[in-house]
Design goal:
The chain is an alpha/beta fold. The protein has three domains: about 5-115, Rossmann fold, CATH 3.40.50; about 135-370, Alpha-Beta Horseshoe (pyruvate-formate lyase- activating enzyme); about 375-420. Helices cover about 35% and strands about 25% of the residues. It has a five-stranded parallel β-sheet, with helices on both faces. The protein is globular, with a radius of gyration of 22 Å. Bound molecules: iron/sulfur cluster.
């Protein structure tokens, strides 16, 4: 069999799918190797959320071609789904697999290596998108489990619904089964992830909260923690928050995309909420969890965003009791309504606004860590020195611990690093 190197760009979902493909390739007898190491096949799982992500794909392919001219190049992911032609013409690229073809990719790679005809079933566009279960380990303690895929929203800047199809979910039975499999492998924390996680339940109609209740009831006790990845603010209900407040196994860590602090811009983005709802969700979290970790996604430089709109976003975020920001300069995506909106903001201005919010994010991180000083948490040890708390603080543990330990700790100092001490 062959040496296969895999590399992933983009979201956690893409990482879970690469990890699943890697497992299938090993089951087919291939050997996994590092991206920088010699291999017969290089597989790139791509992203198309920004033009930089697409540019990075071509750069990575050029680099591989230079160091391994005889190797087979295989490209999959959202860029391959939306613009296969741009990848098919890349020298050395033997397979371009769309997202819907990912479940068949391991077979196709084996056929390619056996010099047999490579057949990737191309489901007719009319056929509903199926759900391909996947999960990825981060180290030996935490893993991301994909429970939902696709999106039925139509935010004006976003290509994800085209690249990933309509919203669809794993059945609760399949999720519970996978949780048991992952816990049996020694994982102590599972992060439930999706494209529009809170929209879990289509097409089988099972509610997200019911899935959480089932996992709480049926997950093995060795599985110490569940965490939610990013969730739309309009889908973070009081009932979900109450469930998490009543069940300590669920991490008080929330990542809520905001995108803009200006209602005028939120309307142009076709987001499903306005500032007031977002603010109310943050208040609802803080009322239940004073030291919860709260992360915010924000896009700057959206078409038509004036200096005053941006100042409104800055003020709104400065006043919000959140822990950190993920800041993205707006990137025109072909085929999205926003790409043809007038009043484009110069790229240099987008970068200036990004910088300003990244500095604000630093101040937020510091203030949040300061507010957690002297408080007690549980650290899941990812290395003998470093652990991750339920509210998403990465702490250095003075006395150390074993990988996988779930230790009660107190945050004792905030500096370049966060230091904690064991209290057991
Ligand atoms: S919710 Fe909006 S931004 Fe998020 S994936 Fe769906 S369309 Fe894109």
């Amino acid at each position: 069999m062959a040496r296969v190197a895999l590399h992933t760009l983009g979201c956690k979902l893409n990482f879970t799918e690469t990890a699943t493909l890697a497992r299938q390739l090993v089951e087919a007898g291939h050997t996994l190797t590092d991206w920088e190491a010699p291999a017969e096949v290089y597989v790139l799982n791509t992203c198309t959320v920004t033009h930089q992500a697409e540019r990075k794909v071509h750069k990575l392919l050029r680099q591989v071609r230079r160091r391994a001219p005889a190797a087979h190049l295989v490209v999959t992911g959202c860029y391959a789904e939306l613009r296969p032609e741009a990848l098919e013409k890349e020298p050395g690229v033997k397979i371009v697999a769309r997202n819907r073809q990912k479940p068949y990719l391991a077979q196709a790679i084996t056929a390619l290596l056996e010099k047999k005809e490579v057949s990737l079933p191309a489901p007719p566009l009319s056929e509903p998108w199926s759900f391909w279960p996947s999960s990825s380990g981060e180290g030996r303690t935490r893993t991301f489990l994909k429970v939902q895929d696709g999106c039925d929203y139509r935010c004006s800047f976003c290509t994800v619904p085209q690249a990933r199809g309509p919203s669809r979910s794993a059945t609760p039975e399949a999720v519970v089964q996978e949780v048991h499999r992952l816990a049996a492998q020694g994982f102590r924390e599972i992060v439930l992830t999706g494209i529009n996680l809170g929209d879990y339940g289509k097409p089988h109609g099972y509610r997200f909260l019911d899935l959480l209740r089932r996992l709480e009831a049926e997950a093995p006790p060795t599985l110490r923690r569940f965490r939610l990845s990013s969730i739309e603010p309009n889908l973070l209900s009081d009932a979900l928050l109450d469930f998490i407040a009543d069940h300590p196994r669920w991490a008080p860590h929330f990542h809520l995309p905001l995108q803009s602090g200006s209602d005028r811009i939120l309307a142009r983005m076709r987001r499903r909420y306005r500032r007031r709802l977002y603010e109310a969700r943050i208040e609802a979290i803080r009322k239940r969890f004073p030291t919860a970790g709260i992360g915010v996604d924000v896009i700057v430089g959206f078409p038509g965003e004036t200096a005053e709109d941006f100042a409104e976003t800055q003020r709104f975020l400065a006043d919000l009791p959140v822990s950190y920001l993920h800041v993205f300069p707006y990137s025109e995506r072909p085929g999205t309504p926003a790409a043809s909106f007038p009043d484009s903001v110069p790229w240099s201005e987008r970068l200036l606004r990004s910088q300003a919010l990244r500095e604000l994010s630093q101040r937020k991180r510091w203030a949040f860590a300061q507010a957690c000083l002297g408080q007690t948490f549980y650290a899941l040890m990812e290395t003998p020195e470093e652990g991750l708390t339920e509210n998403y603080l990465r702490v250095q543990l003075r006395q150390g611990g074993a990988v996988g330990d779930f230790l009660p700790v107190r945050l004792v100092s905030v500096g370049e690093e966060l230091e904690a001490e064991r209290i057991d």
